[in-house]
Design brief:
Elements: E1 4-11, E2 16-18, H1 19-22, H2 30-37, E3 41-43, H3 51-66, E4 75-79, H4 90-97, E5 104-108, H5 114-127, E6 134-140, H6 151-155, H7 165-173, H8 175-178, E7 184-191, E8 198-206, E9 214-215, H9 229-233, E10 240-241, H10 243-265, E11 274-277, H11 282-292, H12 303-306, H13 313-323, E12 332-339, E13 343-350
Parallel strand pairs: 4-5, 4-6, 11-12
Antiparallel strand pairs: 1-7, 2-3, 6-7, 8-13, 9-10, 12-13
Helix pairs in contact: 3-4, 10-11
């Protein structure tokens, strides 16, 4: 019994920051960013808006899209790298704000691979009859990581001041990674289906020896004091990334996972009409297409519009593809992701006869 996606929804902060906007607060350009990443713009959440709010709004939109009352949901799975609080996680906050009742609320931490893991968890809950309706949500407010200082007000259009030299220096130090990320929430509703459609199979993997490809060194309880001003002054609260090795592993492991899940389910690459891959970098997406030997259009992309929204990328891209008519009855598609940890994998899905997302 493959779980069906019966609804999807998104929540995007209204503020859109283009590459040209970023060039007003750091030494960069639209050409430099787009050539290296494919990103042209991203949404940025306003101060006071966190990933839990974006996630709750996305859940509500997905339930409306599915025509399901919140009281009918049996469980929620929340994936995020940027929770509102260290504790608790976002899951109970989203459960409460979306009016889901006192249901099971799972919080998972596979970063860019989080939504893929969440999909698989939802399918298992449904297949074992532990739940009939499960909502999976990925939501991120990366704004808290961004090294903009008071220049954030310039980007959001609430200040016409010039950036200070200190803010510009700080932004320049992190421009290799900070220009990649955007904020968003996106969710899916899953319900029981048939063995011939919905989730057909999956493969999930992790390798902790690759944790330092991308990680945030502090705060953390490995330190005597889990959070200190010294850590912040040293920039340890910002993501640390080995871009070259990250690219190499992502371009190798995501295609390998797609092949594995196809072998397990008896399908071939010729059967796959669409690949919904994590949106980290356009060059990675092009590398996946090359490794699999498929036309570039098969590997869908919306990174130019949103940047890397971490756990929200897969449902956001699926929602866009559904609205664009790229996902219709009987479409066979593969989800795949690679995220910090390292976590990666793939999931094969055949779209049943459903009402198109809106």
């Amino acid at each position: 019994m493959g779980a069906h996606i019966t609804g999807s929804g998104v929540s995007l902060p209204p503020a859109i920051v283009t590459n040209d906007d970023l060039a007003t607060i750091m030494d960069t350009s639209d050409e430099w960013i787009a050539k290296r990443s494919g990103v042209r713009q991203r949404h940025i959440a306003a101060p006071g808006v966190g990933s839990a709010q974006l996630g709750a709004e996305a859940v509500t939109a997905a339930l409306d899209n599915a025509g399901i009352d919140p009281s009918s949901v049996d469980a929620i799975v929340s994936a995020t790298m940027t929770p509102d609080h260290y504790a608790p996680g976002n899951a109970p906050l989203i459960q409460d704000r979306a009016g889901l009742g006192s249901i099971a609320a799972f919080e998972i931490r596979q970063q860019c691979g989080g939504f893929l893991y969440g999909l698989d968890m939802a399918d298992m809950l449904i297949a074992t009859e532990r739940a009939e309706t499960v909502v999976v949500v990925g939501a991120e407010a990366h704004r808290g990581y961004m090294p903009y200082g008071d220049s954030l007000d310039i980007l959001l259009g609430t200040s016409t001041a010039e950036p200070t030299p200190e803010d510009t220096e700080r932004a320049n130090e992190s421009r290799a990674w900070s220009v990649l990320f955007g904020d968003a929430g996106a969710a899916m509703v899953l319900q029981p289906g048939t063995p011939e459609t919905g989730v057909l199979g999956s493969t999930l993997h992790s390798d902790g020896s690759l944790f330092d490809l991308i990680h945030v060194p502090a705060p953390g309880f490995v330190h005597t004091y889990w959070s200190t001003t010294e850590q912040i002054d040293a920039g340890l609260h910002n993501p640390q990334m080995n871009g070259a090795e990250l690219f190499r592993q992502a371009v190798r492991l995501m295609p390998d996972s797609v092949r594995t899940v196809l072998d397990r389910t008896g399908y071939s690459l010729d059967d796959v009409e669409l690949i919904i891959a994590h949106q980290a970098n356009q060059r990675i997406l092009d590398g996946i297409a090359k490794q699999l030997g498929v036309a570039p259009g098969i590997v869908a992309s919306n990174i130019a519009m949103y940047g890397n929204t971490t756990a929200a990328t897969l449902p956001l891209l699926f929602h866009d593809c559904k609205n664009d008519g790229r996902v219709s009855e009987d479409t066979l598609l593969a989800f795949t992701a690679f995220g910090a940890g390292a976590h990666w994998g793939a999931l094969l899905y055949r779209e049943p006869a459903t009402t198109a997302a809106s």
